[in-house]
Design goal:
- This protein is mostly helical.
- It folds into 2 domains: about 1-110, no CATH class; about 115-278, Farnesyl Diphosphate Synthase (Orthogonal Bundle).
- Helices cover about 70% and strands about 0% of the residues.
- Helix 9 runs antiparallel to helix 13 (about 200-225).
- The radius of gyration is 18 Å and the shape is globular.
Length: about 280
C-alpha cells in the first residue's frame, strides 16, 4: 500500500464513516492502516445507494469492486487509491476474498425499495455486511492468521446493524425505505403507509422497542464471546462500547425525529477505555 493510498483511505473513512474511523484510532499502530483500508472499502460500497441516481448505476459500481477483487477488472484498478489500499491488505494479510465479494453482493439489496422481510433475513444481511467486517478486522489484528470469532463477530454484527438502522429509521422512511424487519412491524399492527408517511403510532414504538431489545441481547452475547477471545484480535470489537451508548439514547416514541449523536470525544473515550480494560 502506497503512503498516498493509505492517507486517502484514512481521509475517506473519516469523511464517510466517522464511527469506524474513531474505532481505528484505538487499534495497534502496526495494523491500523490495514484495518482502515478495509473499513474505507466498506464505507464506499455502503454509500453506493446514496451516490447512485438509479439502481443500474449502483450495480455498475458494485460490479467494479467485485471485478477488482477477482482480478477481472478493466484497466489499472490500482489507480483507484481505495482499491490499491484494499488489494494491498488482502495480499499482505492473506485475507480471503469470498467474504468481501459476498459483502458486495449483499449491498445490492440497498439499491432497491424492497422492505427487509423478517429478522432471519436481516440477520443474514448483517452477517454478510457487518459481521464479516469484524471477522476480517480480527484476522488482520491476528497477523493474518485465521481466528475463530464466530459468536463475537456474528452477534456484534447483528447488534451493530440493528442499532444503525434503528437510529436511521426516520431517515430511511423519508426516502421510502424500510430497512428493519417488516414482519416485526406487521405483528405489531403497523401499516406500511404509516411508516412511509412518518406517522408515529403505538405499534411503531412497540416494534422498535422489540428490535432495540433484540439488539441489546446480541450485544450481551457478543460481550461474552469477546471475553473468550485471545488478546490480539479483541481491539477490533471496541465498538461494542459505543453501540451500548447509542442504544441507550434511542427514543422509540419519537422514531422520526433526528437522534442527537454522541459527541466525538465521548466516542473516543468509550472505545479507548474499553480497549484498556479488555
Amino acid at each position: 500500500m502506497t503512503p498516498e493510498s493509505a492517507a486517502y483511505a484514512s481521509q475517506y473513512l473519516r469523511d464517510n464513516d466517522r464511527d469506524r474511523y474513531f474505532a481505528t484510532l484505538v487499534l495497534p499502530p502496526k495494523e491500523r492502516a490495514a484495518v482502515t483500508a478495509l473499513y474505507a472499502f466498506n464505507a464506499d460500497i455502503a454509500s453506493v445507494r446514496e451516490r447512485a441516481r438509479e439502481p443500474a448505476a449502483g450495480e455498475i459500481r458494485l460490479q467494479w469492486w467485485a471485478d477488482a477483487l477477482t482480478g477481472s477488472g478493466h484497466g489499472n484498478v490500482r489507480q483507484n487509491p481505495l482499491a490499491d489500499a484494499l488489494l494491498s491488505v488482502v495480499a499482505e494479510y492473506g485475507l480471503p476474498t469470498p467474504p468481501l465479494t459476498r459483502m458486495i453482493s449483499a449491498r445490492r439489496f440497498d439499491l432497491y425499495q424492497d422492505p427487509m422481510p423478517d429478522l432471519p433475513t436481516f440477520e443474514g444481511y448483517a452477517g454478510e455486511t457487518v459481521s464479516a467486517l469484524y471477522q476480517l478486522g480480527a484476522m488482520i489484528l491476528n497477523g493474518g492468521k485465521p481466528v475463530e470469532t464466530g459468536d463475537a463477530a456474528g452477534h456484534l454484527g447483528v447488534a451493530h446493524a440493528l442499532t444503525g438502522h434503528l437510529r436511521a429509521f426516520g431517515y430511511n422512511a423519508s426516502h421510502g425505505r424500510i430497512f428493519l424487519p417488516w414482519q416485526v412491524f406487521e405483528v405489531c399492527g403497523v401499516k406500511e403507509g404509516e411508516v412511509l408517511a412518518g406517522q408515529p403510532t403505538d405499534g411503531i414504538a412497540v416494534a422498535l422497542t422489540k428490535l432495540a431489545d433484540t439488539a441489546g441481547e446480541h450485544l450481551d452475547r457478543a460481550a461474552t464471546a469477546i471475553a473468550a477471545l485471545p488478546r490480539e484480535p479483541r481491539p477490533a470489537f471496541a465498538p461494542v462500547s459505543l453501540l451500548r451508548l447509542q442504544l441507550k439514547r434511542l427514543d422509540t416514541d419519537a422514531p422520526f425525529q433526528r437522534h442527537n449523536d454522541i459527541a466525538d470525544w465521548r466516542k473516543l473515550v468509550a472505545m479507548s477505555w474499553w480497549r484498556m480494560t479488555h
